[in-house]
Design a protein that fits this description.
heterodimer; A: 258 residues; alpha/beta; 5 helices; 9 strands; disordered N terminus; disordered C terminus; B: 240 residues; 3-stranded antiparallel beta sheet; 33% helix; 28% strand; globular
């Protein structure tokens, strides 16, 4: 899957999914990616920052990985008065456990979005936010797991001590964006015309006309189906497809595209 | 360039095309006319391999003996472009990226930084909204914009053979003018061949070299530009 971003946009902007088989193991040696096909992390306007930072072994964005197959975890320490903007898209074939922990300091902010793929049997995504300072705040825009079959859970656990901006210790209040949400997005791909399928509340059938159109532009059937399915997934998340600063985006992603 | 021999098409047990044969040479502009439901779109879809059609006969394209043996994407990569009659919308897939991937699939690896100005230029010429290249494919687009977008894709993909399925349908008067002017320029390219399904080729400002009339799945008449004029004057009644 290839993800294009517009770093200068005030909000997340997802452009086009097509980056495939991104392997981050060569960057750090810290990730356990035996079951992780793709991973893209976009942080603070530059996807390279997080990697460069990691490669240099320095500073405030501190990565860690578990040894558990198909799972990875990271700790993010957001410095004082800085804003961490994190977009994660993870693709795995079977099961993936994602455990992200954030440590926010005084004046720091967090924006978070997660997108899983539809092929995972089971996905658990947990976002833990710890507030180290007294004036930090989290702004969790979207935490969504897409799935087909199996079980998927999203846990957002924000620990916010009394005194933080927007905190309400009694109800564990999250500072949601206006369109913020957390939930599980079911994706059911129906490839045969005579098959009927249903799900609790949402069902997508692959748009055969869209697949045909992409084939007409030269994509093979599998590529076309993947694009259509992922596009439906993106649409389900309410993203806007746009590209406002493709030069920066390309620069950011250029080194990552295998 | 394109040699259609004994092309027959069935779908759901119904005969849609019956033994159609004709040849489109390089630089020729063929118009296919006929009543609604006569099999015109089926002809184009059969050439491109739309799923759900049972096709017999042969279609030779360039050095490829029978493109009917190829999957859809390989027909496209070989240089055949179909402009759909009702292009669907596709969220999550941007125009520019799709075009770049389509070109790459055909062996033309063009950096997006080089491609984007060209797309923007053509988009402007077609009267499409600003930042059209960045938008998801046909999402929120009107019927006319979708047709213009098909033409935009054609201009970028630069195919050897263009199949247009009623590209004028859904366009308002002004849009027909814009598309017509663009098509007039494009169809003057002698290296490219055209097979165009249209009810009103004159509105598209195309000077056809050949006109074919299909009725109830059969090719009933072929002629020159005068045949299109006769149809538009007298209708199909006297021809079929």
């Amino acid at each position: 899957m290839k993800l294009w971003f517009s770093p200068n946009e005030p909000d997340w902007t997802l452009i086009n999914p097509a980056l495939r088989n991104l392997d981050l193991t060569y960057n750090t040696g810290e990730f356990h990616t035996s079951n992780l096909r793709d991973l893209t992390v976009y942080c603070n306007g530059s996807i390279t920052r997080i990697l460069d930072t990691n490669q240099a072994g320095e500073q405030h964005l501190n990565f860690s990985a578990t040894e558990q197959p198909g799972a990875w975890a990271r700790n993010f320490h957001v410095p004082r008065n800085e804003k961490l903007t994190l977009f994660v898209t993870a693709r795995a074939q079977d099961m993936l456990v994602i455990d992200l922990e954030f440590f926010l300091n005084e004046g720091s902010e967090l924006e978070l979005r997660y997108l899983g793929n539809s092929e995972m049997r089971q996905t658990h995504a947990r976002f833990r936010v710890n507030h180290c300072g007294t004036n930090s705040r989290s702004d969790i825009r979207t935490a969504t797991v897409a799935h087909s079959g199996g079980a998927s859970t999203v846990i957002v656990d924000v620990q916010m001590p009394a005194g933080c901006v927007g905190s309400d210790s009694a109800v564990k209040c999250y500072n949601w964006s206006a369109g913020g949400r957390v939930g599980s997005l079911p994706i059911i791909a129906v490839a045969e015309p005579d098959v009927k399928a249903s799900h609790g509340n949402v069902m997508y059938a692959i748009d055969r006309e869209a697949v045909f159109l992409l084939q007409l532009r030269g994509l093979d059937e599998n590529e076309a189906r993947g694009e259509v399915l992922y596009g439906q997934l993106i649409a389900g998340m309410g993203n806007e497809v746009d590209l406002t600063d493709w030069d920066d985006a390309r620069e950011c992603l250029g080194d990552l595209v295998c | 360039m394109l040699e259609i021999k004994n092309l027959s098409v069935q779908a759901s047990g119904k005969q849609l095309l019956d033994n159609v044969s004709f040849v489109v040479n390089a630089g020729e502009r063929h118009i296919v006319m006929g009543r609604n439901g006569s099999g015109k779109s089926t002809l184009l879809n059969a050439i491109m391999g739309r799923p759900g059609l049972t096709v017999t006969g042969t279609v030779k394209f360039g050095n490829i003996e029978n493109i009917l043996d190829l999957p859809v994407h390989e027909r496209a990569r070989a240089g055949i472009f179909l402009s759909m009659q009702s292009p669907p919308e596709l969220a999550g897939v941007g125009n520019a990226r799709l075009l770049q991937e389509g070109l790459a699939a055909s062996g033309q690896n063009i950096d997006l930084s080089q491609l984007l100005p060209t797309i923007n230029q053509h988009s402007q010429a077609l009267g499409l909204p600003d930042r059209w290249a960045m938008r998801a494919l046909n999402v929120g687009a009107s019927g006319g914009e979708r047709k213009k977008n098909e033409l935009l894709h054609l201009m970028i993909m630069n195919p050897r053979l263009c199949l247009l399925d009623e590209i004028e349908a859904g366009l308002d008067v002004d849009a027909v003018g814009v598309v017509g002017n663009m098509l007039h320029q494009l169809t003057e390219d002698s290296n490219r061949s055209w097979l165009i399904v249209s009810h009103a080729p004159d509105r598209l400002k195309i000077n056809p070299t050949h006109v074919h009339v299909i009725d109830r799945g059969r090719l009933v008449r072929s002629g020159g530009a005068e045949l299109a004029q006769q149809i538009q004057k007298d209708g199909y009644e006297t021809l079929v």
